[in-house]
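Sample A.
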Amino acid sequence: MPRSAQYDIEEILQQAVDIFLEYSFHGAIMDEIIARTSFNRRGFYLEFGSKQQFLYKVLEHYQTTQLMPVVSELETHQGITAINTFFLRYIPLVYSRGCLLINCVCELGKQDATVREMGRHYLDRLQLDFIGCLEKARLNGEIKVEINIESAALQLTSYVQGFAVNGILAENKEEMVIATEALLTPLQL
């Protein structure tokens, strides 16, 4: 009879999110990953095969457990309110550590097709969700009629990318809230 795993894979993936946010992919050494996840080296390689494959699992976990709950706010397409709520929920996620997915795209996206595809899929989803929210905002009379919705959605999506980096550098969360207000105010009536 095969032995059952002596570890909680979800807990290990969550611990790994913290490690990769702290050290980056290249900066995170296997000894640190093994020590902080209470995984043994043999079990790690049996479960994941490589550090690269492990990263993909960690990114999937991060998207599912941390990023998508925030993005889901946009999928209600409730106009400007949904966009505001998205940013208010995104700030605590990225403040002082950045966004793991965007960090990995910046670090690995040029040479790693899987990371690049994950990032592209995320940004495409964001842009479509922003379009849906802006269309609803236009129907509700919340934004100026002359606003080009696709351009505004692209601008918001680009801002999210930069926001992930700025979250690492910002001195406080209020600075990020002010930046969000400055971005959204010109769109609104």
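Sample B, a different protein:
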Amino acid sequence: MVRLLGRSDARPARRPRGLRARRTPESTLGGRSLAAQVFVLQVVIVLLLVVAAVVALVLQVRHDSTQEARNRSLAVAETFANSPGIVAALRSPDPTAVLQPRAEAAREASEVDFIVVMNTDGVRYTHPKPDRIGKKFVGTLQPAQAGGTVVEEVDGTIGRLVQAVVPVKDADGKVVGLVSAGITTDRVGGNADRQLPLVLATAAAALALATGGTALVSRRLLRQTHGLGPREMTRMYEHHDAVLHAVREGVIIVGGEGDLLLANDEAHRLLDLPADAERRKVFDLGLDAGTAELLASGRVVTDEVHLVGERLLAINQRTTDVAGGPAGSVATLRDSTELRALSGRAEAARERLDMLYAAGVGIGTSLDVTRTAEELAELAVPRFADFAAVDLFDAVLEGEEPDSRATLRRTAMSGIRKGAPLYAVGEKIRFVESAPQARTLAEGRPVLEARLAESPGWRAQDLERTEQAVEFGIHSLITVPVRAGALVLGVVSFWRSERPEPFDPEEVVLAEELVARAAVSIDNARRFTREHGMAVTLQRSLLPRTLPEQGALDIAYRYLPAQAGVGGDWFDVLPLSGARVALVVGDVVGHGLHAAATMGRLRTAVHNFSALDLAPEELLGLLDELVARIDQDETADGIAAPVAGATCLYAIYDPVSRRCIVARAGHPPPALVHPDGRVEFPDVPAGLPLGLGGLPFETTELELAEGSRLVLYTDGLVEDRRQDIDTGLERLRDALERTNTSPEETCQAVLESLLPARPNDDIALIVARTRALGAEQVAEWDVPVDPAAVGEVRAAVARQLARWELEDLSFTTELILSELVTNAIRYGAPPVRVRLLRDRTLICEVSDSSNTSPHLRYAAMTDEGGRGLFLVAQLTDRWGTRYTPGGKVIWAEQPLP
């Protein structure tokens, strides 16, 4: 039974883990819990009660049997001794004959075991066993012989019996004989033996009922005690009582009716409860209305603060009727008065750390001195001060090292409200020696003026202005130098007006740390400003300042350096022979002086290569080799970095044929706007960026109608971190489709549509509208390979110049063409052609199919030839040779009158 109970109760019992883990063998009795022990004890008690009842019954029956035997034996003996004729029978000659039958009859009638009649000496006259007659009676006879009676228990021949001996008296009272009657106890107790099984059965039933009831009680007790043993429960309640009254939190248990069931010592102290508070209504304990209402309501709260006396108590309350528990609530009380003060100081420290962190990430977001100063002032207000101002030396704003003797300029100002009587942004300030700012600059340390109304040194700066500041409410000041190493770049002033308490020394430390972090960013911005200015100066010196004169294209351009640093974007317009014009745009990856210097080298190289009148693909090939050599030179000493990447697009436009040959090395493709406004991006093979080498560049030939606009640009216009190049090209297409105007207006419209607020990369943009040389401006002749043909050419040229009204140039032109045509016939190869172009200059061209190149030289006095090209060079502004796929062209230009 006990084993079954333990097994069935072990499953539902939710014993706390900590208590279960702390159970030890000595804490239980035979491994049983308190419920099991109670069950065993109750069963044992019931068994003892049943045994005691049976024993008592048996003893009672035996006692009653003995008493009944005494009473019956005495009654039978007295009755027989006083029966009529007993005295006569004793005096008869044969008492046995007379008395034996009567005694046996009386014995059977009275249901005793024997009736013995004796003489006064104790000799038997009668006995149930005749062989005992005449023998001495066994028992006590003296009292009876004296006239009394005797009742005694003896072990007789028939077993344990009770016998009574009474005298037989005659009429004179003389004892004439004795009568004894006896009965065995077994005979009297036979009924008790018959009742004992019923008694035992009843006791067994009672035991079963008691055991069942005990099992039910034990099961409930097992649930309530969670299977704990007595020692565990004792220890648990001892610990519970110790913890309850030793814990530094008040604990209060309130019943469902609002009665205070339990309050530990801390709760008594915190709430100032009376000693007899338990079992009283919460509202009768003298608590304030809010706290009493909360405790009586039983509502769930977490860290709800109540003012009880002079204490701030944080109250947590939960209900106890969860999972079938009793109705009511339990509340814990925590004195948070000191914690609030400590948390206030911790919160202030946290806010200061947070402000310093914000300074680390929020100051210096741009490499601009003014913007960095503004970020410092904006961060300080209103988190630290009500007004903040940053005053820097003018040299710092220009990127130079400051001069401590120079005046300061208010660079940034921030305040919680407008109208403060302080110096405005942009004003120049010279502080007097007694002013806190001047002392800060001179000593290089912060200065605290806790009460400005009592500071004569501060008032001496400007009596009227400082008086207005005091009336405005400004009452406390901290000045901190902006230090960058040994340099003092300026001073920062923090004012307080709204908060009544003045600045304290701890806040001076915070202000110094805040300005120190900002000073690093300001100095970095100053250094960048200097480097940026130098790089811009270098870059602008390397870029074309004005466009060269030419008649093939109407050109407008824009160049915008990046806000974050100067890059390597560049462009150029290069007049070529034959009225042609070369357009070039390039980009060197990176920023700073190195990129600008590399860009200058590439632009110079393009100028030199274009002088050779090379085809676009040949020129890009030479640039590719140049960049590779630059990389080798830069990395030879292991200090400088190679060119990270360079791109270039080179285009040559011929106004006579209206053809444009384009090649590009990793550069974005050009945009072409047709005269009808249609925009396309010609398919020009991209090629590899410059410096990679290994593959030749390819060209694309475009035929452009007059009035077409060719748009060249760098990737900064169409690509940045927020959009890819495809999106940028579509935006460029939309911008170009909306403009059908001059190149200047096209540049403006494109930048308005695509230019980001703060460009991260340089932007170079060229818009070139094409012109064409009409047939009336071009004259061509085929020349036979015959020296006599020179005269005919001279005559034809003279007539053409007359039609162009350029007769003043006839002599020199005929002389030039005579020399060039003669050289072509003598040293060249057919076919020979002559072409005159009337543009902004008069251009003479002689072409043949030979690749031999003429050279200018000084002829000796005795030489018959060698002076022709010398004369050409003297009579023209420019002359040269360009090679074509079919030979060469020798050209010369003369200015128009």
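Observation for Sample B: The two ends are 137 Å apart (CA to CA).
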